[in-house]
């Protein structure tokens, strides 16, 4: 049986008191191409495959829970972003979404640059062979040691996040006999339509230097005066999991206005503008993300139009997709443990993972899809809440979804679109062991991040 999308039908037609409810799909065995990676399919035996390998075989070989990553899909998405923006723009993969040495190698081979935000991410990038000049270094509180390493190793750009950091980076660069390329991150007062904790461009938050009150203009003045810095542009990032491009339009307009003010005051046209990332992906059938070529066309048109109106040469554009590249490429495979029906409410389905491998539902009230993947079923749909094994009532993986009523312990279920911010935010809560990341491609599977062991936990505990 090949992959097919859910048939059209009502979604969220009926609402429970907690506000989370979806009308059941007419075919629980269908896999919505919108939320699964490109090589996922269901074979003639009813078992879901990825990269040509059955999930039952992967579970036997690598155990559960496990993050199963579609390498071909990841590479294809890298190429799609690179092709969409072409050679006149720069695409920086946001490593915070998920980073490993294998991922760095894929990025390098497929032509994407890399955005890091910690010494650990920088170390991973350099160790795996990403050229330093293709790395951007973010962060609101970079340590002196991190800045020194970034400057010494020749990182292509450092994004300055505060007045203190302007001076700090300039001093370190000058002491090392270098002139560091930098951008200034500004908060433009645009609150993206996203969760409060992941909206990053309104003034009341920790990132960037505000346009309001002339602070960003003052940051530019200071950076231009310091010999250790080469100011190449302005950076703006308005949030995460964004579908509406209107926020980018307002942000671009305000950043271009700042560029015009810089030209008028200093006689300098800064050559680059970074509009950040935050583009959303489909976690459920209701989500409707744009394709990279659509995003590239819209962002380029916005910046070009605003620059023409301001009489500026259009600067080189940079973007920083992370979730939009890696999110759809991965699903988390779980084994069903206990099943607990609650009359008149829902059925609780417990799996062998939980908030230690996916904190996003608890943290952001994120919504996910789920499917029975080790077999097909003709049973009636039942409303379920997929929960983890941790000692926490908020340990929820999928808040409300439908699975077959004959679901049983030992079945394998999978949650798609877990490539971003799941493994990278995973924890050892309750001394859980973080799952492996298994890359699958063309009938072959290999571990790129191994499963933790109890020995790993005990090795850190020096008693």
Helix-strand category: alpha/beta
Helix content: 25-40%
Compute the CA-based radius of gyration: 23 Å
> Biggest sheet: strands, sense, closure?
9 strands, mixed
Shape: globular
Sequence stretches where pLDDT stays below 50 over 5 or more residues:
1-15, 194-202
Query: Strand fraction band?
Result: 15-25%
Mean pLDDT: 92
In angstroms, what separates the terminal alpha carbons? 54 Å
Strand tally, please? 21
Tally of helical segments: 12
Polypeptide structure, described:
This protein is α/β, with parallel strands linked by helices and 463 residues long. The protein is built from twelve helices and 21 strands. Strands 4, 14, 15, 16, 17, 18, 19, 20 and 21 form a nine-stranded mixed beta sheet that branches. Helix 2 runs parallel beside helix 9, helix 5 crosses helix 6 and helix 8 runs parallel beside helix 9.
């Amino acid at each position: 049986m090949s992959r097919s999308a859910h048939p059209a039908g009502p979604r969220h037609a009926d609402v429970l008191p907690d506000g989370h409810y979806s009308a059941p799909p007419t075919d629980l065995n269908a896999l919505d191409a919108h939320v699964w990676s490109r090589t996922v399919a269901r074979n003639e035996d009813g078992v879901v495959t990825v990269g040509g390998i059955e999930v039952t075989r992967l579970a036997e070989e690598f155990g559960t829970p496990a993050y199963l990553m579609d390498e071909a899909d990841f590479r294809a998405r890298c190429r799609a972003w690179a092709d969409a923006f072409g050679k006149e723009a720069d695409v920086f993969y946001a490593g915070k979404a998920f980073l490993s040495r294998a991922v760095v190698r894929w990025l390098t081979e497929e032509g994407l640059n890399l955005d890091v935000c910690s010494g650990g991410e920088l170390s991973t990038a350099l160790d795996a062979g990403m050229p330093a000049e293709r790395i951007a270094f973010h962060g609101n509180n970079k340590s002196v040691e991190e800045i020194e390493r970034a400057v010494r190793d020749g990182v292509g750009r450092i994004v300055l996040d505060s007045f203190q950091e302007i001076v700090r980076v300039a001093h370190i660069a000058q002491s090392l006999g270098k002139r560091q390329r930098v951008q200034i991150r500004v908060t433009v007062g645009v609150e993206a339509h996203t969760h409060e904790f992941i909206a990053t461009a309104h003034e009341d938050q920790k990132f960037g230097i505000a346009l309001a009150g002339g602070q960003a203009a003052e940051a530019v003045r200071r950076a231009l005066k310091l010999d250790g810095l080469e100011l190449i542009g302005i950076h703006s990032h308005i949030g995460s999991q964004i579908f509406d491009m209107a926020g980018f339009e307002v942000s671009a307009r305000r950043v271009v206005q700042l560029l015009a003010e810089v030209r008028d005051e200093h006689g300098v046209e800064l050559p680059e503008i970074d509009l950040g990332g935050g583009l959303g992906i489909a976690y459920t059938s209701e989500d409707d993300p744009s394709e990279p070529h659509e995003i590239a066309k819209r962002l380029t048109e916005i910046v070009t139009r605003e620059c023409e109106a301001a009489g500026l040469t259009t600067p080189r554009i940079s973007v920083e997709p992370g979730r939009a590249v890696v999110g759809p490429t991965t699903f988390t495979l779980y084994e069903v443990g206990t099943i607990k029906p609650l009359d008149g409410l829902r059925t609780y389905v417990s799996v062998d993972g939980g908030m230690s491998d996916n904190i996003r539902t608890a943290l952001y009230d994120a919504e996910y899809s789920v499917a029975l993947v080790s077999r097909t079923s003709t049973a009636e749909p039942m409303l379920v809440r997929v929960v983890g094994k941790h000692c926490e009532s908020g340990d929820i993986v999928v808040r409300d979804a439908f699975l077959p009523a004959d679901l049983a312990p030992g079945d394998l279920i999978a949650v798609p679109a877990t490539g971003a911010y799941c493994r990278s935010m995973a924890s050892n809560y309750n001394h859980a062991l973080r799952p492996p990341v298994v890359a699958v491609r063309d009938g072959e599977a290999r571990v790129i991040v191994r499963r933790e062991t109890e020995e790993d936990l005990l090795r850190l505990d020096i008693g």
